[in-house]
Protein backbone atom coordinates (compact mmCIF):
# COMPACT_ATOMS: atom_id res chain seq x y z
CA UNK A 1 0.00 0.00 0.00
CA UNK A 2 1.35 3.41 -0.99
CA UNK A 3 -1.10 5.77 0.72
CA UNK A 4 -3.50 4.98 3.57
CA UNK A 5 -6.01 7.68 4.57
CA UNK A 6 -8.10 7.08 7.67
CA UNK A 7 -10.84 9.23 9.25
CA UNK A 8 -9.78 12.42 7.48
CA UNK A 9 -11.79 15.42 8.65
CA UNK A 10 -11.47 19.01 7.44
CA UNK A 11 -13.21 22.12 8.66
CA UNK A 12 -12.66 25.87 8.30
CA UNK A 13 -13.03 28.62 10.87
CA UNK A 14 -14.89 31.54 9.27
CA UNK A 15 -16.52 34.75 10.47
CA UNK A 16 -19.84 32.91 10.37
CA UNK A 17 -18.51 30.00 12.43
CA UNK A 18 -17.13 26.59 11.65
CA UNK A 19 -17.72 25.09 8.20
CA UNK A 20 -17.30 21.33 7.85
CA UNK A 21 -15.80 20.38 4.48
CA UNK A 22 -14.90 16.69 4.76
CA UNK A 23 -16.33 14.16 7.21
CA UNK A 24 -14.46 11.01 8.19
CA UNK A 25 -12.97 10.10 4.79
CA UNK A 26 -11.05 6.81 4.54
CA UNK A 27 -9.46 5.21 1.48
CA UNK A 28 -6.18 3.72 0.27
CA UNK A 29 -4.22 3.50 -2.96
CA UNK A 30 -1.61 0.94 -4.00
CA UNK A 31 1.55 1.52 -6.01
CA UNK A 32 0.73 1.90 -9.69
CA UNK A 33 -3.03 1.95 -9.06
CA UNK A 34 -5.46 4.55 -10.44
CA UNK A 35 -8.28 5.71 -8.17
CA UNK A 36 -10.88 8.33 -9.06
CA UNK A 37 -12.73 10.68 -6.72
CA UNK A 38 -15.96 11.96 -8.23
CA UNK A 39 -18.75 14.24 -7.05
CA UNK A 40 -20.36 17.59 -7.68
CA UNK A 41 -18.66 20.91 -6.95
CA UNK A 42 -18.35 21.49 -3.21
CA UNK A 43 -18.33 17.80 -2.33
CA UNK A 44 -14.86 18.01 -0.74
CA UNK A 45 -12.80 16.33 -3.48
CA UNK A 46 -10.15 19.01 -3.91
CA UNK A 47 -10.00 19.91 -0.22
CA UNK A 48 -9.20 16.28 0.61
CA UNK A 49 -6.15 16.11 -1.66
CA UNK A 50 -4.95 19.60 -0.73
CA UNK A 51 -4.98 18.42 2.89
CA UNK A 52 -2.67 15.53 1.93
CA UNK A 53 -0.26 18.00 0.33
CA UNK A 54 -0.40 20.48 3.23
CA UNK A 55 -1.78 23.16 0.90
CA UNK A 56 -5.03 24.14 2.60
CA UNK A 57 -5.81 27.72 3.63
CA UNK A 58 -4.54 28.95 6.99
CA UNK A 59 -7.99 28.76 8.61
CA UNK A 60 -8.31 25.03 7.92
CA UNK A 61 -8.22 22.37 10.64
CA UNK A 62 -7.34 18.82 9.67
CA UNK A 63 -7.55 15.66 11.74
CA UNK A 64 -7.24 11.95 11.06
CA UNK A 65 -4.36 10.14 9.41
CA UNK A 66 -2.74 9.98 5.95
CA UNK A 67 0.27 7.68 5.89
CA UNK A 68 2.64 7.56 2.93
CA UNK A 69 4.69 4.37 2.71
CA UNK A 70 8.41 4.82 3.18
CA UNK A 71 10.63 5.13 0.14
CA UNK A 72 13.03 2.53 1.58
CA UNK A 73 12.01 -0.92 2.77
CA UNK A 74 12.04 -1.27 6.54
CA UNK A 75 11.62 2.44 7.26
CA UNK A 76 8.47 3.80 8.96
CA UNK A 77 5.71 5.42 6.93
CA UNK A 78 5.35 9.21 6.86
CA UNK A 79 2.33 10.79 8.53
CA UNK A 80 1.22 13.65 6.28
CA UNK A 81 -1.49 15.08 8.53
CA UNK A 82 0.19 17.52 10.87
CA UNK A 83 3.61 16.98 9.30
CA UNK A 84 6.14 19.79 9.64
CA UNK A 85 6.72 21.99 6.57
CA UNK A 86 10.24 20.61 6.02
CA UNK A 87 8.82 17.06 5.84
CA UNK A 88 6.12 18.08 3.37
CA UNK A 89 8.66 19.95 1.21
CA UNK A 90 10.63 16.71 0.83
CA UNK A 91 7.49 14.82 -0.17
CA UNK A 92 5.89 17.37 -2.51
CA UNK A 93 7.24 17.16 -6.03
CA UNK A 94 9.63 14.31 -5.30
CA UNK A 95 7.23 11.60 -4.08
CA UNK A 96 3.78 13.16 -4.54
CA UNK A 97 3.17 15.49 -7.46
CA UNK A 98 0.02 17.41 -8.35
CA UNK A 99 -1.53 18.68 -11.56
CA UNK A 100 -3.76 21.61 -10.67
CA UNK A 101 -7.04 22.50 -12.33
CA UNK A 102 -5.84 25.79 -13.81
CA UNK A 103 -2.24 25.69 -15.10
CA UNK A 104 -2.23 29.45 -15.71
CA UNK A 105 -2.47 30.10 -11.96
CA UNK A 106 -0.23 27.15 -11.01
CA UNK A 107 2.63 28.29 -13.24
CA UNK A 108 4.58 31.45 -12.39
CA UNK A 109 3.70 33.94 -15.17
CA UNK A 110 6.93 35.92 -14.59
CA UNK A 111 9.30 32.99 -15.20
CA UNK A 112 10.13 31.02 -18.32
CA UNK A 113 9.10 27.37 -18.33
CA UNK A 114 12.78 26.40 -18.45
CA UNK A 115 13.48 28.29 -15.22
CA UNK A 116 10.58 26.62 -13.41
CA UNK A 117 11.41 23.10 -14.57
CA UNK A 118 15.14 23.44 -13.92
CA UNK A 119 14.50 24.63 -10.35
CA UNK A 120 12.27 21.61 -9.72
CA UNK A 121 14.82 19.12 -11.04
CA UNK A 122 17.75 20.70 -9.23
CA UNK A 123 15.83 20.80 -5.95
CA UNK A 124 14.43 17.27 -5.95
CA UNK A 125 16.85 15.31 -8.13
CA UNK A 126 20.08 17.15 -7.41
CA UNK A 127 20.87 17.78 -11.06
CA UNK A 128 23.25 20.39 -12.38
CA UNK A 129 21.81 23.15 -14.57
CA UNK A 130 22.89 21.60 -17.89
CA UNK A 131 21.63 18.13 -16.93
CA UNK A 132 18.34 19.58 -15.66
CA UNK A 133 17.80 21.49 -18.90
CA UNK A 134 18.35 18.32 -20.95
CA UNK A 135 15.94 16.33 -18.74
CA UNK A 136 13.32 19.11 -18.91
CA UNK A 137 13.40 19.17 -22.71
CA UNK A 138 13.11 15.38 -22.84
CA UNK A 139 10.08 15.53 -20.54
CA UNK A 140 8.40 18.18 -22.68
CA UNK A 141 8.97 15.97 -25.70
CA UNK A 142 7.45 13.06 -23.76
CA UNK A 143 4.21 15.04 -23.30
CA UNK A 144 4.19 15.73 -27.06
CA UNK A 145 5.06 19.42 -27.10
CA UNK A 146 6.46 20.21 -30.57
CA UNK A 147 9.83 21.99 -30.82
CA UNK A 148 10.41 21.48 -27.10
CA UNK A 149 14.00 22.77 -27.14
CA UNK A 150 12.76 26.13 -28.41
CA UNK A 151 9.44 26.37 -26.62
CA UNK A 152 10.85 25.54 -23.20
CA UNK A 153 12.14 29.13 -23.19
CA UNK A 154 8.59 30.48 -23.55
CA UNK A 155 6.58 32.10 -20.77
CA UNK A 156 3.30 30.41 -19.71
CA UNK A 157 1.11 32.94 -21.56
CA UNK A 158 2.78 31.95 -24.83
CA UNK A 159 1.19 28.48 -24.67
CA UNK A 160 -2.41 27.49 -25.37
CA UNK A 161 -4.50 26.03 -22.54
CA UNK A 162 -3.86 22.46 -23.69
CA UNK A 163 -0.13 23.05 -24.03
CA UNK A 164 0.05 24.67 -20.57
CA UNK A 165 -1.60 21.56 -19.16
CA UNK A 166 1.03 19.42 -20.91
CA UNK A 167 3.72 21.57 -19.29
CA UNK A 168 2.11 20.93 -15.89
CA UNK A 169 2.12 17.19 -16.56
CA UNK A 170 5.78 17.34 -17.61
CA UNK A 171 6.68 19.19 -14.40
CA UNK A 172 4.62 16.86 -12.22
CA UNK A 173 6.16 13.70 -13.64
CA UNK A 174 9.71 14.94 -14.19
CA UNK A 175 10.82 13.77 -10.73
CA UNK A 176 9.15 10.36 -11.26
CA UNK A 177 6.82 10.62 -8.23
CA UNK A 178 5.22 7.58 -6.70
CA UNK A 179 1.80 9.27 -6.62
CA UNK A 180 0.31 11.74 -9.09
CA UNK A 181 -2.69 13.76 -7.95
CA UNK A 182 -4.62 15.22 -10.90
CA UNK A 183 -7.25 17.76 -9.81
CA UNK A 184 -9.71 18.28 -12.69
CA UNK A 185 -6.82 18.23 -15.21
CA UNK A 186 -9.05 18.59 -18.29
CA UNK A 187 -11.92 20.79 -17.09
CA UNK A 188 -11.17 23.85 -19.25
CA UNK A 189 -10.19 21.88 -22.37
CA UNK A 190 -12.27 20.80 -25.34
CA UNK A 191 -13.06 17.12 -25.78
CA UNK A 192 -10.33 16.40 -28.34
CA UNK A 193 -7.58 18.01 -26.26
CA UNK A 194 -8.98 16.33 -23.13
CA UNK A 195 -8.52 12.89 -24.68
CA UNK A 196 -4.97 13.74 -25.73
CA UNK A 197 -4.07 14.92 -22.21
CA UNK A 198 -5.52 11.79 -20.61
CA UNK A 199 -3.60 9.62 -23.09
CA UNK A 200 -0.35 11.40 -22.16
CA UNK A 201 -0.96 10.84 -18.44
CA UNK A 202 -1.80 7.16 -18.97
CA UNK A 203 1.26 6.61 -21.18
CA UNK A 204 3.70 8.20 -18.75
CA UNK A 205 2.12 6.45 -15.74
CA UNK A 206 2.57 3.08 -17.41
CA UNK A 207 6.21 3.89 -18.11
CA UNK A 208 6.99 4.92 -14.51
CA UNK A 209 4.45 2.80 -12.54
CA UNK A 210 3.11 5.97 -10.91
CA UNK A 211 -0.11 5.72 -8.91
CA UNK A 212 -2.89 8.15 -9.89
CA UNK A 213 -5.47 9.89 -7.73
CA UNK A 214 -7.83 11.55 -10.22
CA UNK A 215 -10.29 14.19 -9.00
CA UNK A 216 -13.10 14.96 -11.42
CA UNK A 217 -16.83 15.45 -11.86
CA UNK A 218 -16.71 13.45 -15.11
CA UNK A 219 -17.72 9.83 -14.57
CA UNK A 220 -16.67 8.92 -18.10
CA UNK A 221 -13.09 10.02 -17.42
CA UNK A 222 -12.97 7.90 -14.26
CA UNK A 223 -14.34 4.87 -16.11
CA UNK A 224 -11.63 5.18 -18.75
CA UNK A 225 -8.68 5.86 -16.45
CA UNK A 226 -9.28 4.20 -13.07
CA UNK A 227 -9.78 0.78 -11.53
CA UNK A 228 -11.63 2.06 -8.44
CA UNK A 229 -13.85 5.04 -7.69
CA UNK A 230 -14.85 7.04 -4.61
CA UNK A 231 -18.07 9.03 -4.83
CA UNK A 232 -18.35 12.07 -2.54
CA UNK A 233 -21.26 14.33 -1.69
CA UNK A 234 -21.25 17.27 0.74
CA UNK A 235 -18.06 16.05 2.43
CA UNK A 236 -19.21 12.44 2.83
CA UNK A 237 -17.99 9.31 1.07
CA UNK A 238 -21.24 7.79 -0.19
CA UNK A 239 -19.86 5.02 -2.42
CA UNK A 240 -16.55 3.21 -2.86
CA UNK A 241 -15.71 0.25 -5.02
CA UNK A 242 -14.41 -1.10 -8.30
CA UNK A 243 -15.38 0.68 -11.50
CA UNK A 244 -17.57 -2.29 -12.44
CA UNK A 245 -19.43 -2.19 -9.13
CA UNK A 246 -19.89 1.58 -8.99
CA UNK A 247 -21.12 1.82 -12.60
CA UNK A 248 -23.12 -1.38 -12.89
CA UNK A 249 -24.38 -2.03 -9.35
CA UNK A 250 -24.27 1.26 -7.40
CA UNK A 251 -25.58 1.10 -3.84
CA UNK A 252 -26.00 4.81 -3.11
CA UNK A 253 -28.96 6.73 -4.51
CA UNK A 254 -26.66 9.68 -5.21
CA UNK A 255 -24.41 7.51 -7.40
CA UNK A 256 -27.45 6.29 -9.32
CA UNK A 257 -28.53 9.91 -9.82
CA UNK A 258 -25.08 10.85 -11.15
CA UNK A 259 -25.13 7.95 -13.60
CA UNK A 260 -28.66 8.82 -14.70
CA UNK A 261 -27.53 12.38 -15.44
CA UNK A 262 -24.98 11.26 -18.06
CA UNK A 263 -26.33 12.19 -21.53
CA UNK A 264 -27.08 9.17 -23.71
CA UNK A 265 -26.29 9.20 -27.43
CA UNK A 266 -29.48 7.29 -28.20
CA UNK A 267 -31.47 10.03 -26.43
UniProtKB/TrEMBL annotation:
The keyword Cell cycle does not apply. Pfam families: ABC_tran. Keywords: ATP-binding, Cell membrane, Membrane, Nucleotide-binding, Transport. It is found in: Cell inner membrane. Its main location: membrane. GO terms for biological process: transmembrane transport. GO terms for cellular component: plasma membrane. GO terms for molecular function: ATP binding; ATP hydrolysis activity. Residues 3-259 form the ABC transporter domain. SMART domains: AAA. InterPro entries: AAA+_ATPase, ABC_Ni/Peptide_Import, ABC_transporter-like_ATP-bd, ABC_transporter-like_CS, P-loop_NTPase. It is a peripheral membrane protein. Belongs to the ABC transporter superfamily. This is Oligopeptide transporter ATP-binding component. It comes from Salinisphaera hydrothermalis (strain C41B8).
